[in-house]
Amino acid sequence: MKAFLILEDGTVFEGKSIGAAGEVISEIVFNTSMTGYLEVLTDPSYAGQAVVMTYPLIGNYGVAYEDMESLKGWPDGFIAREISRMPSNFRSEDTIQHFLEKNNIPGICSIDTRALVKILREKGTMNGMITTNEDYNIGEILPKLKEYKVTGVVEKVSCKDKQEYVPGDIGSVKTEADRNIAVIDVGTKKNIIRCLLNRGCNVTVYPCNFNADEVIASKPDGIMITNGPGDPAECTGIIEQVKVLAGSGIPVFAICLGHQLMALAHGAKTYKMKYGHRGANHPVKDLETGKVYISSQNHGYVVDLGSIDKSIAKPWFINVNDGTAEGLSYIGKPVKTVQFHPEANAGPKDSELLFDEFMKMTGGNK
Amino acid sequence: MPKIDGIKRVLVIGSGPIVIGQAAEFDYAGTQACRSLKEEGMEVILVNSNPATIMTDKDIADKVYIEPLTVDVLQHIIETEKPDSLLPNMGGQAGLNLGMELAESGFLDSHGVKLLGTTAETIRNAEGRQEFKDLMERIGEPCATSELVENIEDGIKFANKTGYPVVLRPAYTLGGSGGGIANNEEELVEILTNGLRLSRVGQVLVERCIAGWKEIEYEVMRDSNGTCITVCNMENLDPVGVHTGDSIVVAPSQTLSDKEYQMLRTSALKIIDELGITGGCNVQFALHPSSFEYIVIEVNPRVSRSSALASKATGYPIAKVSAKIALGYTLDEIPNAVTGKTYASFEPALDYVVVKIPRLPFDKFIKAKRTLTTQMKATGEVMSICTNFEGALMKALRSLEQHVDSLEGSAYKNNTTEEIEEMLHIIDDRRIFVVAEAIRRGIPYSRIHEITMIDEWFIDKIAILVEMEERIKNAKEIGRELLYEAKRLEFPDNVIAAWTGKTEKEIKELRYKWGIKAAFKMVDTCAAEFASETPYYYSCFDGFNEVEDISDRKKIMVLGSGPIRIGQGIEFDYCSVHSVWALKNEGYETIIVNNNPETVSTDFDIADKLYFEPLTPEDVENIVRLENPDGAVVQFGGQTAIKLTEALMKMGVKILGTSAENVDAAEDRELFDEILEKCCIPRPKGHTVFTTKEALKAANELGYPVLVRPSYVLGGQGMKIAVSDNDIEEYMAIINRYHQEHPILVDKYLMGKEVEVDAICDGEDILIPGIMEHVERAGVHSGDSISIYPAQSLSGKIQKVIVDYTGKLARSLNVIGLINIQFIVYNDDVYVIEVNPRSSRTVPYISKVTGIPVVDLASRVILGAKIKELGYGTGLAPKSDYLAIKMPVFSFEKLRGAEISLGPEMKSTGECLGISDKFNEALYKAFLGAGIDLPKYKKMILTVKDADKLEAVDIARRFKKLGYDIFATRSTARVLNENGVLAIPINRINEEAPTLMDLLLEHQIDLVIDTPTYGDKMKDGFIIRRTAIETGVTCLTSLDTAAALLTSLENSDKGHLSIVDITSINKNSFN
User: Concatenated DSSP letters for A203-235?
Assistant: First the structure.
């Protein structure tokens, strides 16, 4: 079946329909990872967005459910050049086509994804519609596209109730736990929790409408604020709670949205990048050691380095390519945050050692 | 400015002659490294014995030594030039081994030379089998269970413990020389014996067999700060068991999930970090196809064939960045030249698929075993880029120029399905076609996978191509949708035409009517995330064209020479690159089209634009339609480019230089005869024929021996000397394996002295940089002959005749640019045997030794300059102060079963040079450069055909005088003894022991001289020659070569070789 991708600027790509039937309006973003399409599809940070994979062959190794980063697929839409007709991998249980259908994600393939990415790169991230309606009326659609705004996504992706995990759960290493970590779920990937479990932590996951005092009262050894979708500045309620967590003296490690929320809680500003960083190849430099790590990234907003009060926090990591903030270290507080994803999945595991540093912050080997 | 203090003069070691396993990729790496060093203000001293390389140009390094790559020579150069540092990891295994020897002996330390890049310890840890294994165990990275053995018994013991099959890998060899898989004790003993001898340290690793696992490679970089990145990963379509150099390789990996991809990436980075490598490194893995188990196969702590491929596949210049790292820069400080916005610490992201297919030499060695093993056999490779795997595979197939444009398997139509299934077990260069046929026959994927272990994802992709083939063949009328889909999968118009009963033109017109046209996309390292200006493009049919900056400048298209193969080597890349540089200098925009990932010409900063595309008329036309070049240059890209002349003219592209009609005239026998007659130039009598019957008639009319060859070929492909009707029948059958569009030539064979000339002609004047003379008599292909400049034995009168003939021929053929002519001097008469109105194999070497920039001048002449104005005079140039002797280098030991005796069909893979102001020294250096370092044991075997016996007496006497013991077959021994030269008779192979074979296997023999009878069907000679090669003994098949070797041995002073910096040659003679 034919499908169309209509962009806010009036560009129309004609391709073939994949995944669920139906029509969707969303923000179109691109990801440059060459592997890990399933991890991307199940990363809650993509809620409210339709994602284009720049690597042209998608679905080659099928779907292994254990690689899912959350319980379902989140993007509003999926865009690829070619979907493999026959996946091949010893763990493959399903096809990407079927996965998209099951998760009610409409998509389009057989389009020139490179041409699309160039438009997004030049004009910046924009909204678009995926539709199978051949009689679409562009005059009616364009105003709708311009109007569309991603909102309320954190509430959508966060868990609804508190959850408890112990080492050995969700495929982690079964060890004796020696500490408790509170995880603030603003859209967490499973592997953040798994990385903590692997290091001998009991994990309590709190939904995004958590109460900071309750978390502090449970006396965790450390607090992790996770990744998540959307505009961080919109999360005013959460920011207030994060401010309380930061002042508690309990070690905090925050990733991605968590990093942005922490910065906002300290008076810094965030802004929307032209087209964000989404991929598995971004070099980030540790300003303390000079060492560069290749990181997995997925963010459209970034903390404005210039807005940070130097007496409150100092840059920890920066992006080698564009010099943007990739990590902050808070002065006088056991609080460290990174914009990139040390938990990887998809992407390189070079910076996973940051979880070890977090463990040190929470009291070395107990 | 380097980051490390005190680096000013850097010595760079090249990789020497091209052999299988060590080819043009090191010219690419070395050239890039030298340019990168010079960019930083370094003085670069280069040593490489290979004169055909671009790296040995005076534009590339400040001092250039084309000298044998031996420890003695390097020490001499270091003492003379006093470099402060040495960069050893750009010259392949050969360069690395030398660097190691110099470091380990303490020579570098005592001369204050710092080893740049990687330390000797790192190299030892990565390359020494046991050290590597220990290191891997220490860091918990899995290696195959293995044992390093130094004798046969330990090998057998290990194999009995782990069970067969086992893999054997000799330590410190290149291209896996002497390695293999043994399925039983007998095979183990055979391969192990050989491997122990070939290893530089007499060690062979015997390991658990992991054949059939997925073979995955990672190209990684590390800087002194410990930052590590992956440039690219690659997956071999052929599972473990086939050398990666002989495998079809795809980048990036296709069948790995992120878990497996990251698992291996993490392992690769851990290894490179633990080894402490600074620079580029290649890590090869075997990955179990149905679990996460993996094994580290090998680590190469240097640039390699794979790093060249990864550089071209991603646009990330590994060698260049490695050189910068060696100077102390870190990855986050080195800008990415492609984007100009990112840094070398940014891992490339691909938004296309890359396929590499090896170019195997079985068209040259039709008797050699085609089986592919862990010992590499390919001479070169092609790469292609497309938006889908099927398309990339199709493009790569036609880039090979092996008469194959699709996977259609007409060769198998008479085989039963059972036979096809049986054939799937054979692992050779035809396997992918057998897989396609198996799919056609309906053999299930699972069965094909079970036999071949090729991943089903690849099998399905091949099936998609087979299905498309059937859809096209079955289509009553080809519709728009089908045609679009066929083009998306890169089926060429000529194939679609043949299958639909239409002409190629009709298909093209249909395409244009329906708007199905090739679009060009950029290779930008970042999947379009950042705007890039790299002018590096590939085509596809399913996208928008993004080549926008079509300039108004006058532009010229230079056609490259495709994959390296025997007969068309790196020399043509040298010529193409120099032509591009010359045209750029003259103010033109240059466009290069080529498909060889190993070469300098496909570096994105050579021409103004690089199109990485197959060199077929259709693919080239796609570029022509877009760029509308003002002209095309075909005379520098070997036969590959010449073949495109007619097609280019039909597209309306002006051919710069010698016109197509004149190229034709040189190849068309009748036209050529007319010209010769007009100029009163004699040539050996001959006829043109098409059929065997006509050939027999011609041969008998001329009288045997005769020379039989197809026209329009390079490297004497299919050329044979026939002495009987039987030979004619055999050779004609071989030639006519492929449909011949042009007639076959049958000429009288004259056994005279062969002389070769390269000349530049502007239509009026000519410039001959020098006359070269071959050591071997006519009948040995010029590429396989030892070539001497300046000619030593020609009288002034003969030289005059040669210059006269050259001028007449060049003018009569209206040559504008280069011409190469081969003459025979026979009974004091000069005959023309071949004229090629294009650049030749000898151009780089003659340019270097005379100091005359031949390609540069020819390029300017092509643009309209007159030779008179160029400042190098006209006619025959004055002799250089130096003699240069070009020595062919062979790779016979890599090709089991290949006939090694020299003849009119070229067999050498590379060459080296001996330069000196003294003839004997030049000759000695040439032999030394080719690895012939004698005497050792002073024992030799002589067995010659009857016609050579008397001539052999003098040769034997001279060897005797040098102290050699001579063993000879009975008849040869008798003649020698009768003539007063003591020779020990020895039994033939089928006689009782001890025989010739036993003697060879005792490893005390320096040299075998065996001249084969033409048309010799006797197995004996063949077995002796093969055994000699496989046991590492020098084997000569021409008495002329033997005499030359003697001359060099008699007169050499091994200890005191002079060295020549070629940048100083003729510096002033033309001012």
Answer: EEEE-TT--HHHHHHT--SEEEE----S-GGG-
Same-domain pairing of A110 and A252: no
Known catalytic residue: A343? yes
Side chain identity at residue B570, one-letter code? I
Joined tokens for residue A244 = 């309380």
A109 is catalytic: no
Cα B706–chain centre separation: 30
| Position B67 in a domain | yes
Pair (A256, A195) in one structural domain: yes
Q: Give the H or E element holding residue B571.
A: helix B570-585
What is residue B509's DSSP assignment?
H
Query: Do the beta carbons of residue B385 and residue B251 sit within 8 Å?
Result: no
**Using CA atoms, how far apart are residues B947 and B107, in angstroms rounded to an integer?**
51
Q: Which residue, of A132, A150, A168, is where some domain finishes?
A: A150
Query: Which residues on A lie below 8 Å from B352 (Cβ)?
Result: 56
The 3-state DSSP class for residue B570 equals helix
Six-digit token string for B740:
């011949």
pTM of the model: 0.94
Nearest to B527 among A32, A35, A36 (CB): A32
Query: Which residues in chain B have their CB less than 8 angstroms from residue A282's CB?
Result: 346
Chain B residues touching residue A34 (CB < 8 angstroms): 252, 261, 349-350
- Clarify whether residues B406 and B511 are in a common domain: yes
Percent of chain A topping pLDDT 90: 98
Looking at the fold, whether A162 and A182 belong to one and the same domain comes out as yes
Strand order in the sheet with B536-540: B519-522, B536-540, B609-612, B589-594, B555-559, B631-633
Q: With respect to residue B51, please indicate whether it lies within any of the assigned structural domains.
A: yes
CATH of the domain at A21: 3.50.30.20
**Arithmetic mean of pLDDT over chain B:** 91
Query: How far is Cα A70 from Cα A95, in angstroms, rounded to an integer?
Result: 18
- Read off the pLDDT of residues B879-931 as tens digits, 9 standing for 90 and up: 999 999 999 999 998 888 888 888 888 999 999 999 999 999 999 999 999 99
Residue with tokens 């998209």: A100
How many structural domains are present in chain B?
Answer: 5
A277 in catalytic set: no
Based on the fold, state whether residues A164 and A311 are members of the same structural domain.
Answer: yes
Q: What is the pLDDT of residues B960-1003, one digit of tens each?
A: 999 999 999 888 999 999 999 999 999 887 788 788 888 887 77
Which one, of B1032, B942, B935, B1020, lies nearest residue B984 by Cα? B942
A63: which DSSP letter? B
pLDDT digits over B135-174, tens only?
Answer: 998 999 988 777 889 999 999 999 988 778 888 888 766 5
What is the distance between the alpha carbons of residues A344 and A290, in angstroms, rounded to a whole number?
21
Q: How far apart are CA B943 and CA B987, in angstroms?
A: 11
Residue B180: predicted pLDDT: 85
Give the domain range for residue A298.
155-361
Cα of B125 to nearest chain A Cα, Å: 24
Q: What is the DSSP string of B818-884?
A: EEEEEEEEETTEEEEEEEESS--TTHHHHHHHH---HHHHHHHHHTT--GGGGTS-SEEPPPPSSEE
Interchain pair A32, B543: CB under 8 A: no
**pLDDT one-digit tens code per residue, B537-558:** 999 999 999 997 677 889 999 9
**C-alpha span between B587 and B706 (Å, rounded):** 49
DSSP character for B47? E
The alpha-carbon gap from A96 to the nearest alpha carbon of chain B, in Å, equals 13
Range of the domain at B557: 550-656
Tokens of B497: 């035409």
Summarised one tens digit per residue, pLDDT across range A324-358 is 999 999 999 999 999 999 999 999 999 999 999 99
Say if CB B732 and CB B743 are below 8 A apart: no
The reply to whether B652 falls in a domain is: yes
Record: contact B262-A291, CB cut-off 8 A: no
Residue B421 in any domain: the answer is yes
Distance CA B529, CA B306 (A): 26
Question: What was the pLDDT predicted at B1024?
Answer: 85
